[in-house]
Structures are given as structure tokens and as C-alpha cells.
Write a structure and sequence with these properties.
It is a single chain. 51% of the residues lie in helices and 12% in strands. The protein is an alpha/beta fold. The chain has two domains: 13-82, lambda repressor-like DNA-binding domains (434 Repressor (Amino-terminal Domain), Orthogonal Bundle); 90-273, 2-Layer Sandwich (Endonuclease, Chain A), CATH 3.30.870. Strand 4 and strand 5 (225-230) form a beta hairpin. The longest helix has 17 residues, at 136-152. The model has no long low-confidence stretch (mean pLDDT 89).
């Protein structure tokens, strides 16, 4: 079939659900539009769920069970999706991130995932497990996805990556002195790469800091741009340039206000020397 996207059920619970949905549909010889007609939705919606771009809601899973005559099997499988630690909207964002030509990051309070050492990432997820925010299985899911995202940076050519870290990111201790020291060393090493620019937005930037929430901006290979932001419960992927362009402009303004890369590395090394 032309342009039929290969599915990887090991990628995430969302991907496993999508693969199962497609398998059941193929077994019956239905098109996406035919299944959609039976479920009362659109073929585009079916496509988005099958390819993992949209997670299935409980209502969607129950409707699919009814269409396929599968009892409550899809509804039960969907619970793994609803209990995931990966925010809605994030899998779709990652699908773009791993192919982006340029990645622009702004983060507060924590080193961005793409820049984290394994030990730093493990400390973050362990803390979330101890607080009861996620389960151990969900922590493993997060770390597995992070490892795949980081591995994607090794593609040729690598994406250009611009990183602005609020000073809180390098000042907040995570995982103990040893873990934090290695993490700061990694930031310095990344700043030496020709494809990466690392800057620190100091505390005294005050009201001149453009963002109060983490923001990621992607430039795709066709030079289109998308933005990703998230709340505690949901991620938001924005493609409409009426909303993306102001974020891009604000990001450039913040880069101009932040410390230069050389000055940023000096600050990071100073904090590093204060770590036993």
C-alpha cells in the first residue's frame, strides 16, 4: 500500500494500541474511512490513532471494541495508554523532534531531557516515583523514550541545537554532588560542539526573560516551524505560524538578553567548581 507508515509497537503504549487497531482493521479488510463510519468519527482520526499521533480516549477504545466485536479488549489495552507517564501530545512532538533540522530549547529549573546524563535523568524519575507521581513502570517508559530521543541527535547531519537555560537549571542540585558535577561537565562538553549553542539566562534578567514556561521550537527540514509547550497535564503542539512566530521572535530576543556562550560556560564551570 502506498505511503503506509510502518508501526513500531515497542515505541510506546500509544503505538501498541495503534498497531492493534490497524491489525484488527486489516483482518476485516476495512479502510480507515469504513472503520470511521462504524465508529462515528473521521478517517483522519483513525489514521492519527493508528500512527500514534493521537492517543485513544476511553470513549474511542470502547467504540472500537463495539465496531470490532472485541468485548472490552481494546478498552483494557487503552488503560495502559491512559496510565502512561507520557503527556498527551508529546509522542506527536517527538515524531517531529527526531527529524528536525533545528531545535531551540528554553527550560526552567531542570536540565532539558536531550541534555541530561543517564544518572541525572534517573534521579529525576526516581524522585517522581518516590513522590507517587508516577509508577516504576512509568519511570522506565520515560527513560526509554528519553534514550531514543537522545540517540536521534547522532544522525547525520546532526540538528542544530540552541539551548537557553534559566540559571535555576544549573543551580538546582539533582541526584547529589557527583551526579550534578557530571551533568554540568556534559553541558560544557555540549557547548564545545559546532552544532550546539548553550546559553544561561541569569536570575538578574528579571522581567526581561521572555518565557515563564518551558518552550521548544522546531525547524523542520522543509523550513516550517512548530512549537511545543506543556502544562502539568497536557502537551500542546502548535503549527499555526500566527502563534508560532511570536514565540520564535521572543526566543531570539531572549537569546540576545542571555549570557553569551563563553560567559555561560564560565558560569557553569564556576558552579561546577563549587560542587565537591
Amino acid at each position: 500500500m502506498v505511503n503506509r507508515k510502518e508501526l513500531d509497537p515497542e515505541k510506546s503504549p500509544v503505538a501498541r494500541f495503534g498497531q492493534r487497531l490497524r491489525q484488527l482493521r486489516d483482518e476485516r479488510g476495512w479502510t480507515q474511512d469504513e472503520l470511521a463510519a462504524r465508529m462515528g468519527c473521521s478517517g483522519t482520526h483513525i489514521s492519527a490513532v493508528e500512527t500514534g499521533r493521537r492517543p485513544p480516549t476511553p470513549r474511542f477504545a470502547a467504540s472500537a471494541d463495539k465496531a470490532f466485536g472485541t468485548g472490552d479488549r481494546l478498552e483494557r489495552q487503552g488503560r495502559a495508554v491512559w496510565n502512561t507517564a507520557i503527556l498527551e501530545g508529546f509522542p506527536e512532538f517527538v515524531a517531529h523532534e527526531v527529524r528536525a533540522a533545528e531545535i531551540r530549547l528554553f527550560e526552567l529549573g531542570i536540565i532539558p531531557g536531550l541534555l541530561q546524563t543517564p544518572e541525572y535523568a534517573a534521579a529525576i524519575t526516581t524522585g517522581a516515583v518516590r513522590r507517587g507521581a508516577i509508577t516504576e513502570q512509568q519511570a522506565e517508559e520515560r527513560l526509554s523514550l528519553l534514550a531514543r530521543r537522545q540517540a536521534s541527535l547522532q544522525r547525520t547531519p546532526p540538528p542544530l541545537m540552541y539551548v537557553v537555560l534559566d540559571e535555576s537549571c544549573i543551580r538546582r542540585p539533582v541526584g547529589g554532588p557527583g551526579v550534578m558535577a557530571e551533568q554540568l561537565d556534559r553541558l560544557v562538553a555540549l557547548a564545545e560542539l559546532p552544532s550546539t549553542v548553550v546559553q544561561v539566562a541569569p536570575f538578574d534578567l528579571g522581567e526581561r526573560r521572555a518565557f515563564d514556561l518551558p518552550v521548544t521550537l522546531l525547524t523542520l527540514t522543509d523550513r516550517s516551524q512548530i512549537a511545543y509547550t506543556e502544562s502539568a497535564q497536557q502537551g500542546c503542539l502548535e503549527r499555526d505560524m500566527r502563534f508560532v512566530q511570536p514565540l520564535v521572535t521572543a526566543y531570539h530576543q531572549m537569546q540576545a538578553e542571555a549570557l553569551s556562550q563563553a560567559a555561560s560556560v564560565a558560569v557553569i564551570e564556576k558552579v561546577r567548581k563549587g560542587t565537591p
